[in-house]
Amino acid sequence: MESSMFFNSVTGDRKYKAEDWAQYFKGFIGNGIFLDDAAALKVNPLTGRTLRINAGMAFINGYAYYNDADLDIDIPTVTADRIDRVAVRLDFTERKISTVVKQGTVGASPVAPELIRNADMYEMGIADINLTAGIVEITADRITDLRRDSDLSGEVYLKIYNSLMTADITNAIAAFAAAGSRQNIDAADKIGVILGKIKKWLADLGTAAFCNTGTTSGTIPVIGADGKLPASVIPNGVNISTPNNFGNATTLQGALNFINNVFGGTQKVAKLVADTFDTVI
User: Which DSSP letter does residue 100 get?
Assistant: First the structure.
């Protein structure tokens, strides 16, 4: 059956129910707690066996829940070990959403009660309370926060955003062109701009930057026994005639002598680095 919404009524021919609006909203808003405020609907110990639930908002199956003030709930006398669960409950029979405490089953190894999720009721757990027989004071270490557990509650989200974040982009094509000049990547850059900047850097660096120019095997050249790189990878104009062995240099001066002999001086090395990476040395 086809349906559409929402249109102005003409002599009563367009009437909508609450569930129509809920169906509309649940199409793009997912269930959860509005956690833009990190403390929203958090369960805290107050005094004795009284719990305080912070103000906050939740969204369940297209219906909104607002609690604009802290809510205090008392846990009755505990005669045996159990785990209670605090939940936000959408009740279609009562036509409301409210915060409730679901009492767990007692036992030597108690477990929290299951959440109800059917055509008449839908619950989201926000905290588990570990209770022992005769307890008179509930402390923070007995409260397990469930608000970010996506199976029990979770944070409200836009469904279209969630789909984009989990989409398979293996075969996606990003159109881009090299940037006009070397630039740093900015956090606000779009993917095409980032790829363009990277392409410009790689183009300017050239093949010599990857240490395998002049080799036929595609491997990084090995320094010879004389302490020099193979002649095939030495740029034109670089002096390699002086057999000063860098591998045998044991002092800073020895290393500097090698640079002077092979590269023609430290100033030329600095200029090479500056030209390559566009930095000031």
Answer: E
**Facing residues of 32 across strands?**
59
Q: In this predicted structure, what is the pLDDT of residue 244?
A: 43
> At which of 101, 135, 162 does a domain end?
162
Please check whether residues 132 and 78 belong to one and the same domain: yes
Write out 152-180 in H/E/C secondary structure.
CCCECEEHHHHHHHCCCCCCCCCCCCCCC
Which stretches within the chain are classed as H helix?
18-26, 159-165, 191-205, 252-263, 266-277
Same domain, 149 and 221: no
Query: What pTM does this model have?
Result: 0.58
Q: Are 58 and 34 in contact (CB under 8 A)?
A: yes
pLDDT tens-place string over residues 174-195: 778 888 898 888 888 888 888 8
| The token pair that represents 206 in the structure block | 């050239």
Q: Residues 98, 104, 105, CA angle at the centre, nearest 5°?
A: 150
261 lies in which domain range?
206-277
**How many whole angstroms separate alpha carbon 111 and alpha carbon 133?**
15
